[in-house]
C-alpha cells in the first residue's frame, strides 16, 4: 500500500509564500511523475503543476511565474514552491501519483 502525504500548508497573507512537500510512505515507490492539484470550496479539483523526474511538465496559467515544482531525488519528495500568493490560491492542495492521492493540506491566503 502506498500513501502520499502532503505537508507545509498554512495561513499566509497575500504576497507571501509557502512551500508544500509531498512524500510517499508504505510500499516503496519512486515519485517520478507527480502532479499537484488543488480544490477550492465549491470548485472542481484542478491540476496546478506537474513534474516528471526533475523536469516540470505543466503549470496552470493562473500560477505561471509564481509557482515552481521540484523533486528531491535523495529524499524522494516533490515540492511545490508558491510565491506571491493570492487569496484565490486558497484551497486544499493534493499531490497525486497514478491513482494515489494524499489527504491534502490546506492553504489559506488572506487579503
> Would you report the number of β strands?
11
Question: Count the helices. How many?
Answer: 0
Radius of gyration: 13 Å
Structural class category: mainly beta
Mean of pLDDT = 94
The biggest beta sheet, please?
7 strands, mixed
What's the overall geometry?
A: globular
Q: Whole-Å distance between the termini?
A: 40 Å
Instruction: Outline the low-pLDDT stretches.
Output: none
Could you state the order of secondary-structure elements as H and E?
EEEEEEEEEEE
Q: Percentage of helical residues? A: under 10%
Percentage beta strand: over 45%
Task: Describe it.
The protein is mainly beta and 111 residues long. The chain has no helices and eleven strands. It has strands at residues 2-7, 10-13, 18-26, 33-39, 46-52, 55-59, 67-72, 77-82, 91-97, 100-101, 105-110. The strands form two sheets. Strands 2, 4, 5, 6, 9, 10 and 11 form a seven-stranded mixed β-sheet that branches. A four-stranded antiparallel β-sheet has the order 1-3-8-7, with no helix packed on it. A hairpin with a 2-residue loop joins β9 (91-97) and β10 (100-101). The mean pLDDT is 94.
Amino acid at each position: 500500500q502506498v500513501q502520499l502525504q502532503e505537508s507545509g500548508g498554512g495561513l499566509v497573507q497575500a504576497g507571501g509564500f509557502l512551500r508544500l512537500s509531498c512524500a510517499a510512505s508504505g510500499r516503496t515507490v519512486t515519485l517520478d511523475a507527480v502532479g499537484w492539484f488543488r480544490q477550492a470550496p465549491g470548485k472542481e479539483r484542478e491540476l496546478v503543476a506537474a513534474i516528471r523526474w526533475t523536469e516540470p511538465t505543466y503549470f496552470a496559467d493562473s500560477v505561471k511565474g509564481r509557482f515552481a515544482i521540484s523533486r528531491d531525488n535523495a529524499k524522494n519528495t516533490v515540492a511545490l514552491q508558491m510565491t506571491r500568493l493570492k487569496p484565490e490560491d486558497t484551497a486544499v492542495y493534493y499531490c497525486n501519483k497514478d491513482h494515489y492521492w494524499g489527504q491534502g493540506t490546506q492553504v489559506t491566503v488572506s487579503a
